[in-house]
Amino acid sequence: MTSPRTAAAVDGPGPVPTRRTESEAVYLALGAGGLGALYGLVVALVAPSLSLADDDPFALWAAGGSAVVAAVVSAAGYWRTRNQPGQEWRRTLPSWKFTVNTISVVIVHTVLAFLATYALYRVLALGFIGLPVIVFWAVVLMTVTLGLTAYIAYLSVSRMTTQRMSSLLMAFIVIGTLTAMVTTPDPQWWMVHFSQLGTFDNLSSWVFNGTLIAGGLLVTTFAVYIANDMSALTEAGVLTHPHGAKVVPALFVVMGVMLACVGIFPVDVNLALHNLSASGMAAMFLVLLISGPILLRGMPRTYFVSSWAFLGATLLSVILFVPAVGYFSLTAFEIIVFALIFGWIAVFIRFLGVAGQRD
């Protein structure tokens, strides 16, 4: 007998927001917009000389407000939408696991809201150099910013699926890393190694290390969604290995812990633990690639072709990096392997989502 969860995993695209969800998102946007108007008024009165210039903090005020709204809305939305069609399985999770999942989802939405808002206003500053932000514009800009943040964040958590989780992971890692790159005090960091970004005692390093820690936490949450999807596909007879639905998510959990430890132990704090964590993450990646034909038996053939291509690219990168060849620098090697790992995760999730679908 096919359960609703199995049918959804095999034939359906995942949970779709209901009319109630759309209505709630609009009401939250209106409420956040009202708070934004008040917030903009307070900001304008507290700092009357604000402008969009690079040396003024209006972008930080806006980003901070957006982050707070995203945190509150994503937490409430992720908890509330656990009863929606396609999300019922989350109610069966142990309370501690659901709590960890919620925290990781909230952190990612909060940081993405902060970085996206800050980047947007910095771009606006380049187009409106020296434009003063009077009370009226402070109110209008904060209203729109906080309202849109609430609307987007609520709809995002209400549509949470494995594929959306992977998209959040990719966006979070890329945006956080790029932010650390462009704000680092050492423009020649790349001449040392990738982890050099996390060795400075400033905002840049906090962003880099925090991205790795939060990203690792998100990968562990990601593993819960993978376990649910793989269990459904195993029940449906699509995946044939009896233990794959347990082993693969467990390997992802280890990978997430290792990624978080890379940020917890920066290279200038504990080199041994930093390298051990980075090596452990790479090892889990290789284990997942090599064991795929066994643990993921039943996945589309094209997936295995692509996974072998990722394995080949990884091995080629190692060959080009070894001292005997020396074609790659350490920084280039780290970035390439990092990109291959998260690129493979994206491909894996895409094929996992269509594994049981009929052509």
Automatic annotation (TrEMBL):
Recorded hits in Pfam families, A to Z, give: DUF998
> Which interval of the chain is the signal sequence?
none
Q: Which InterPro entries match?
A: DUF998
Lineage, top-rank taxon, reads Bacteria
Q: Which residues form a coiled coil?
A: none
Record-annotated membrane-spanning stretches: 25-46, 58-79, 100-121, 127-154, 166-183, 203-226, 247-267, 273-296, 308-329, 335-353
Would I find Transmembrane helix among this entry's keywords? yes
Instruction: Give the keywords, sorted.
Output: Membrane, Transmembrane, Transmembrane helix
For this entry, the protein name equals: DUF998 domain-containing protein
Q: Which lineage do the record's taxonomy fields give for this organism?
A: Bacteria, Bacillati, Actinomycetota, Actinomycetes, Micrococcales
